[in-house]
Amino acid sequence: MIDVQVHPSAIVDEGAQIGVRSRIWHFVHVCAGARIGRNVSLGQGVFVGNRAVIGDNCRIQNNVSIYDAVTLEEGVFCGPSMVFTNVVNPRALVERKSEYRDTLVRRGATLGANSTVVCGVKIGEFAFVAAGAVVTRDVRPFALMAGGPAVQIGGMSARGARLNLPVVGNGTALCPETGERYILVDDRLERMAAT
After folding, report:
1. CA dihedral of 115, 160, 59, 96, whole degrees rounded to 10
2. How many other CB atoms sit within 10 Å of the CB of residue 170?
3. Distance between CA 129 and CA 154 in Å, rounded?
4. 24-79 pLDDT, tens per residue?
5. Cα distance between residue 159 and residue 20, in whole Å
6. What is the Cα–Cα distance from 158 to 50, expressed in whole angstroms?
7. C-alpha angle 44/49/52, rounded to 5°?
8. 133: how many CB neighbours lie within 10 A of its CB?
9. Per-residue model confidence as pLDDT tens digits over 112-123
10. Are strands 77-78 and 110-111 parallel, antiparallel or unpaired?
11. Is 159 left (phi over 0), alpha (psi -120 to 50) or beta?
12. Which of 4, 45, 50, 119 has CB atoms 3.0–4.6 Å from 31's, for a disulfide?
């Protein structure tokens, strides 16, 4: 693993694929089939399963488990102690490995500290899941989600700034940090192309 920083306390099983400039910190376990992109940071106590995929430039904070059937696209942020699941109805006495449901987190999304993502959902690009939220269904791009179960309470720009838009309906807003324009049409938020 040339150009990968691995702390001596971490366990990286033979066969794991890890991109250059990635950093693996204290007490991490990366399983043999894991695929990890370039410039990824895995914080203390992270677990990455055999069938987990982590894209380039992701930041996984302390105590997060990326289980089998979880895919993170480029630039996903997982806050401290956030949780993924991979079975809807787990039982210790019932084998359910054949029932894992795929979870997809699209490019640039943020999953706040102590949030939970129930398996089988898709989280749209640049969505923002608040700390402690419980995601039980698909999340639209640029959506700001909070609560348990999580509901959309607004929109966020790609930069991570809250947009001044209604939760439902139609409207436009500018990112207060970049000036990018966003439009809400029929409850779906989109970034407008630069002109």
Report:
1. 40
2. 12
3. 11
4. 999 999 999 999 999 999 999 999 999 999 999 999 999 999 999 999 999 999 99
5. 25
6. 30
7. 105
8. 25
9. 999 999 999 999
10. parallel
11. alpha
12. 50
